[in-house]
Structures are given as C-alpha cells and as structure tokens.
TrEMBL record:
<dbReference type="InterPro" id="IPR006584">
    <property type="entry name" value="Cellulose-bd_IV"/>
</dbReference>
<feature type="domain" description="GH64">
    <location>
        <begin position="1"/>
        <end position="91"/>
    </location>
</feature>
<dbReference type="Pfam" id="PF18962">
    <property type="entry name" value="Por_Secre_tail"/>
</dbReference>
<dbReference type="InterPro" id="IPR026444">
    <property type="entry name" value="Secre_tail"/>
</dbReference>
<protein>
    <submittedName>
        <fullName>Uncharacterized protein</fullName>
    </submittedName>
</protein>
<keyword id="KW-0732">Signal</keyword>
<dbReference type="InterPro" id="IPR005084">
    <property type="entry name" value="CBM6"/>
</dbReference>
<dbReference type="Pfam" id="PF03422">
    <property type="entry name" value="CBM_6"/>
</dbReference>
<dbReference type="GO" id="GO:0030246">
    <property type="term" value="F:carbohydrate binding"/>
</dbReference>
<dbReference type="InterPro" id="IPR037176">
    <property type="entry name" value="Osmotin/thaumatin-like_sf"/>
</dbReference>
<dbReference type="Pfam" id="PF00754">
    <property type="entry name" value="F5_F8_type_C"/>
</dbReference>
<feature type="domain" description="CBM6">
    <location>
        <begin position="246"/>
        <end position="368"/>
    </location>
</feature>
<dbReference type="InterPro" id="IPR008979">
    <property type="entry name" value="Galactose-bd-like_sf"/>
</dbReference>
<dbReference type="InterPro" id="IPR032477">
    <property type="entry name" value="Glyco_hydro_64"/>
</dbReference>
<dbReference type="InterPro" id="IPR000421">
    <property type="entry name" value="FA58C"/>
</dbReference>
<dbReference type="Pfam" id="PF16483">
    <property type="entry name" value="Glyco_hydro_64"/>
</dbReference>
Length: 466
C-alpha cells in the first residue's frame, strides 16, 4: 500500500508538470526529478507553473496541486523542535542583502560579453533570462561578462548558476568589478577555487559595502579545458541615493519658434515664456544626463483657458520622450506643476519642448533622477487595481505571452506604464492606439503590471511573461 501511494504521488506530480514521456521504449522507467524540465510544454498545470516560477515565490517553491512536494519540491519548512516562527510580508531579497535590495539584472540594462562564439541557442542573452535550463557557452577558458544597468547601484550580493553539464566548464576563479564609464574599474569581489557540485546550482556571494556603479564586469576562468559555461548571473543592490536634479528656466532657451518672453506676476514674477501656440517650440542645449535610467520631468505651467498639451523630445524632435497634458489654471500666472516619467540613456542632449496644443505659459522645467519611482509606482499600481476603477474595457492577449502582447480598449489612445512584480518602473509609452502589439521579448519571465491611463484616469492590468 505504501509503494502504491508513492507511485501515485509521483505520477500525479509528473502529469501536472508535464514530464511523462509516453514515446520511450519503457514508459515505466523514467526520471521525473529534474525540475528544469517542469512546465516546459502544454498541457500542464498553469496555475502551479505560475506560482512555482522564479520571481513569484521564494526558491521557486509553492504548493499548486496535491503532491506538489514530490522530489524534494516542498515549500514547507520542517523542524523537529519548533519554538517560534517569524513571518514577514513583502518582497524578499534572494541575495541575502537588506530589505532595500533590488534585482539589478531584472530592472533592464545592456548585457555584453568578450566572446560571441557560442553555439546556436547558447548565446549570452541566456545569462539573464531567469531560466537555469539555458546557458551561455564560449570556446575559451577565460572570458568577461558585463552588465550595464539603467541606474547606479551599490552592489550587496550576486549569484552565479552552473550549467546543465560538464562541471569542468564551470567558473572556478573570478573577480567582479564596478565602473561608471566602462573604462575605469574598481574591484568589488574576488573568488578562487569555487566548486559547483551540482548541475544548475545557484550560489550567492556577499559583497562588502561599496560605492554606486552603473557597469558591472565578471572576469571568469573555468575549472579546466578550453570551454567556459554558466547558466545565470544575478546582481542585487540598492539604487544610488544621490539624486540628480536640474532646473532650467524657460526663458533660458537656446533657440525657439513662435514664443515670446513676458514678465510674470505674484510670487513668480521673473520672466516666463508665453504666447505659446500649437507647433511652437523651445530648445535647451547641452544638458548632461549622468546615468541611464528613469527621470521625472516637471513643468511649471499656467493657462487662463482650457490648457493644452506639450511633449519633450531630443535630437530636434526625432525622438519624443513623452507627453503631458497642461490643465487650465484660471489665469496666466496661476502656476501649477505637472510631471511625467521618462527613460533616457546617459549622455549630453539638446532637449526640446514642443506645443502639441497651445494656450499655456511655461515658467521653468526640472529633470530629476526618479529615485522614488519604485515605491511610488508600486503604490499606484496596487491602489489602482484594488479600487477596480472601470474607465474603459481593457484586454491583454495572449496572457501569458512570450514575445508580443496585444492591448485593446474602447478609447482611441492611452498612455502605458510597465511595472515589474515589485512595482519598479520599467518603461513608459504615450499615445498608444488600441490594438497595438507591445514587444515583451526583452523582459525576463515573471509577473508584470501595466498601468493604462485614459483621459487622466488609471487602471492596472497584469500579465505573465513566459
């Protein structure tokens, strides 16, 4: 009877995880213990797949169906003499750092390697695809791997996951460096003689307190032979608290078309830019953005009429960064602040403010590193979803999705903001028409929230990236 129950449990788990191969000569002799093969194709238990995926549950362990603990896959905690338990609610940090740590490699950025001689399907993009079943392989015994983040981070820990076979190809020795220009490097951590006794094994390493960096580079050497391979790298740390912020007075434009200067009144009696009509513009040259990332752009505006709309661009209007509605304020000198969040790479730019619709004045504008975007975005996302605000019928399909996601709604256009599972702002797009196909192929697997703004009202939809 005990043997029957054991076999029944294994068959039940294998069916839910879709690992039974009925084409083998002896169906009764199979190994169903390799977790890398779970949920790889349909039909499978998509509910359990959702909760078992990394980024949703700690260590990819959850209980999605009866016998989901088969083959040491239990999400339970066992102790022979329990005395107390402490339960924490909120995001966890896989690197063992403090509560403010973020998954840096999960926030978007640029990955590069020294050698691109990999066989098909084993390229360097696999290093941050959140899938231990894939790997990066190079026919060199030593190589560097570099990740450029979208913001500066102080690294607290990192992890490396071994590949599926050939232990001699595992990294044995390495050093990790940080940089803010990709040229001058600072040593962050050095390891030697590291052993990965298991395949697809993740090991996490702590890093001493350090400055914030944008570039991170691993210089790796294998165990033996002429091939180096690894499955995953992850970086964990806290975003830089030293926020960049620059305010530009509107009258200090470098060039313009159509607008006029005028003297203000009241508390803000300095000069401002007025007589702004549709298609007028102002250019502000040589503004330096120190780090790639998300920035909040705020505008001091006033309008005696019904307001209008502005857009922010670079490169003479070739690249529009975002749009913002200007409200009516009841007077040409009744100033208010409106803002939006943009993403921009580090560099020096000539910014342009363009009047999509005129009828407003501009006193100044400010661009600041959006250091608080994570918490604010998370609060906005969950508050919006919990309020069940029905502003328009919105659908996302397919969901889950792998490379593209179609969004449909009853309005003509919407502003979209993408957040990851921790509420971190990933990217934003304005004036997206209904029926658009959104590319999500660059995202890591996991849960995401999409804020949809229509006519100034926001609702939130979630989707799963497979």
């Amino acid at each position: 009877k005990t043997t029957d129950i054991l076999v029944q449990a294994q068959i039940c788990a294998a069916l839910n995880r879709h690992v039974i191969d009925v084409t083998t000569p002896n169906v009764g002799l199979q190994d169903w213990s390799n977790s890398a093969e779970y949920y790889q194709q349909s039909p499978c238990n998509h509910y359990a797949k959702f909760w078992d995926q990394q980024g949703i549950s700690v260590d990819q362990l959850a209980y999605g169906f009866p016998y989901d603990d088969v083959f040491e896959y239990s999400s339970s905690v066992h102790t022979p003499s329990p005395s107390r338990v402490v339960v924490s609610f909120g995001p966890y940090t896989d690197g063992g750092g403090n509560d403010n740590d973020e998954d840096i490699t999960g926030m978007g950025g640029n990955l590069s390697v020294q050698f691109t001689d990999s066989p098909a399907g084993e390229g360097f993009a696999n290093l941050i695809d959140n899938d231990a079943a894939t790997k990066y392989l190079t026919f060199n015994s030593s190589a560097w791997v570099q990740f450029q983040a979208n913001n500066a981070y102080s690294l607290s820990s990192y992890s490396i996951t071994s590949a599926n076979d050939a232990p001699q190809r595992d990294p044995l020795n390495w050093n990790l460096q940080g940089s803010n220009d990709g040229v001058n490097w600072t040593a962050l951590d050095v390891r030697s003689g590291v052993d990965f006794p298991s395949r697809q094994q993740k090991q996490t390493f702590q890093v001493a307190a350090n400055s914030a960096f944008t570039y991170f580079r691993f210089n790796l050497t294998n165990n033996s032979g002429s091939i180096l391979q690894l499955a995953e790298i992850e970086l964990f740390g806290e975003g830089s608290s030293s926020g960049f912020s620059q305010t530009i007075q509107a009258e200090n434009y470098s060039s313009m078309s159509g607008v006029q200067l005028e003297n203000g009144a009241g508390a803000e009696a300095d000069q401002n830019v007025g007589y702004i009509d549709t298609n007028d513009w102002m250019a502000f040259n040589s503004i330096n953005i120190p780090n790639s990332g998300n920035y909040t752009v705020s505008y001091r505006v006033a309008s005696e009429g019904s307001g209008g709309e502005l857009s922010l661009d670079v490169n003479g209007g070739a690249n529009v960064l975002g749009y913002r509605t200007v409200p009516g304020t009841g007077g040409w000198y009744n100033w208010t602040t409106v803002s939006h969040t943009i993403y921009i790479e580090a560099g020096t730019y000539n910014f342009g403010i363009f009047a999509q619709t005129g009828g407003w004045n501009l006193d100044s504008w400010t661009i600041s590193l959006a250091s608080g975007a994570s918490a604010q975005s998370a609060a906005t996302a969950f508050n919006s979803e919990n309020s069940m605000l029905e502003i328009a019928e919105i659908s996302l399909s397919p969901n889950p999705a792998k490379s593209q996601l179609q969004i449909d709604f009853t309005a003509e256009h919407a502003n979209l903001t993408l957040l990851n599972a921790h509420g971190r702002l990933m990217e934003s797009t304005s004036n997206v028409p209904s029926g658009s196909l959104l590319s999500i192929s660059h995202l890591k697997k996991g849960l995401y929230f999409l804020q949809v703004e229509i006519d100034g009202k926001v609702t939130v939809k979630h989707f799963i990236k497979e």
